[in-house]
Amino acid sequence: MKWTEHPTRGPLGVPETTRARLGIGAGKKLDFKALSPEQKAAVAQGMKDGEAKVEQYLASGQKNINGWGVGSLFGDRAFYKGDWLKRAAAAKGGIYGNDAAEAMYPMTKTLAAGEVLDGSKHNYTITFPAGQLPPVNSFWSVTMYDGKSQLLIKNPINRYLLNSPMLTQMKKNPDGSLTLYIQKDSPGKAKEANWLPAPNDTIYLVMRLYWPKETPPSILPPGEGTWQPPAIVVAS
């Protein structure tokens, strides 16, 4: 394990006295095996506490819009202004993200009311009303991940996302709206073009809006825009 030195706070913000006791610093390696049982327990607890803080930030550090976390998590050092918890949350939510002007990333693991998305319990839908697809200059997508590992899900049709380039193959509703089917089993051949296969377990969905439009309707400014991602609902 190698530590990265912050110019004022030390490695990962660890206080100088703690670093001295653990023998860590810029360019050094932590010999975890050499630590006392008490020190090992303290490090393990610190990692657990840190992970909980990151998860809490992802759950509440962005604006909740219809169950989606909408905000601006990504940028350069000047953007973070020393907020390393936000930076860690950005890496946890989806590392290597772009800044808001280049892409927005609404993300969710729950329904609007807070119930955890679970493909083993329910089928879900996302419906974009007529004329209210994500407003972008480039393209948009909705990607499915496992809710625990946050990895892509193996599925029988090798489909991991639905996106705007696929619109020509999708079927719209009679009123012009577009419904995406979020479930582990096929919704049937007639609806399969709109099917995003889900795991037989918890779900993590990320919407990507590349080069979001700045004029209304727009998701910008982050969390305050005139366009909002539609709520995920349990299929009837």
Which characteristics define this entry?
236 residues, 2 domains, five-stranded antiparallel β-sheet, 19% helix
Q: In short, what is this structure?
A:
This protein is of the alpha+beta class and 236 residues long.
Q: Layout of helices and strands, plus pairs?
A:
Elements: H1 16-22, H2 37-60, E1 63-65, E2 68-70, H3 77-80, H4 84-94, E3 103-104, E4 107-108, E5 124-128, E6 140-146, E7 161-163, E8 178-183, E9 195-197, E10 203-210, E11 232-234
Parallel strand pairs: 8-9
Antiparallel strand pairs: 1-2, 3-10, 4-10, 5-8, 5-11, 6-7, 6-10
Explain this structure.
The protein is of the alpha+beta class and 236 residues long. It has 2 domains: 11-60; 63-234, Jelly Rolls. It is built from 4 helices and 11 strands. It has helices at residues 16-22, 37-60, 77-80, 84-94, and strands at residues 63-65, 68-70, 103-104, 107-108, 124-128, 140-146, 161-163, 178-183, 195-197, 203-210, 232-234. The strands form 3 sheets. Strands 3, 4, 6, 7 and 10 form a 5-stranded antiparallel sheet that branches. A 4-stranded mixed sheet has the order 9-8-5-11, with no helix packed on it. It has a two-stranded antiparallel ribbon with strand order 1-2. β1 and β2 (68-70) form a beta hairpin. α2 (37-60) crosses α4. The longest helix has 24 residues, at 37-60. The chain is globular. The model is unreliable at 1-12 (pLDDT under 50).
Per DSSP E runs of 2 or more residues, the count of β-strands stands at 11
How many angstroms separate the termini?
Answer: 49 Å
Whole-number count of domains = 2
Provide the CATH top-level class of the largest domain.
Mainly Beta
Overall mean pLDDT: 89
pLDDT under 50 segments (min length 5)?
A: 1-12
- CATH second-level architecture of the largest domain: Sandwich
Assign an overall shape. globular
Helix content: 10-25%
CA-based gyration radius:
21 Å
Strand content: 15-25%
Would you tell me which CATH topology of the largest domain applies?
Jelly Rolls
